[in-house]
Amino acid sequence: MHPLGIFEAALIFPHATGSIRLKVEFFAINNCTSQYFILENDYLNIYGIDINNHKDRYLTIGENKRPKFAFSPEKREITVIRKVKNVNKEKLVSDQLIEPQISAELTPEMKEELIEILFQYREAFASDNEPLGAIKGHELDIMLNVERPYPPLLRRPANPDSPRAREELESNINELMKLGVLRKFGHNEELEVTTTVIITWHNDKSRMVGDLRALNTYTIPDRYPISRIHETLTQLSKARFITSMDAIKGFHQNFLTPHARKLLRIIAHCDLYE
Q1: Which residue among 64, 127, 166, 229 is least enclosed by CB atoms within 10 Å?
Q2: Which InterPro entries does the UniProt record give (predicted)?
Q3: Do 48 and 153 belong together in one domain?
Q4: pLDDT higher at 145 or 133
Q5: Which range marks the domain in which residue 118 is found?
């Protein structure tokens, strides 16, 4: 149930002692559970109009309560004089849809429809308060093809980084800790597997990368069926527009089982993290 717009109506309440004329604004509401709601009854009382909430709603005017005026069940087309602004939707457009490029070939109606879909599923997108999403309802696990005690190759030391790389590494780790992705490993906890993390550079931007080659050697690979490329292209053959979305830090949005978290502990020059 949400407002569609506002329309005006001139109402005339006939009475023997003199008719009352009011210009009233009404809200048009989509998917409303009732045919109408009467608001501001206290304001109408100033004019001597009393509206009784009864299964057959009616109104009386003045002190004489005997003449009862019923509401007409007739339905007519209305003309909206102005649309009700959805503040939350406008905030989505102004704050989160600045960078995305919406095709200029879309008509205003199509653009409004697209924004409505994005607003409807807004919880699937990152925001200032929730900068990182999460895939809920499923936890990823890692199965190894070896049993304890694990091979020494899975216990990797910290990488001897340069001072610049160490500074960037600490910055990346602190960011992930603020987002709740990493936690500092307790020294009284059992430690069996560690992965070295290093800093890589792309266009002067740093990125923390885990050296998972040793762990991958002993990991049983997942086997998820992937659609063939021609099947995917066939499904897209009738599409008029194709949307491209980027999952920011998508690999950090998966929940891991407690067992998998123990296998993905990372080691840096500053400390151990999980």
Answers
A1: 229
A2: DNA/RNA_pol_sf, Retrovirus_Pol_polyprotein, Rev_trsase/Diguanyl_cyclase
A3: no
A4: 145
A5: 87-125
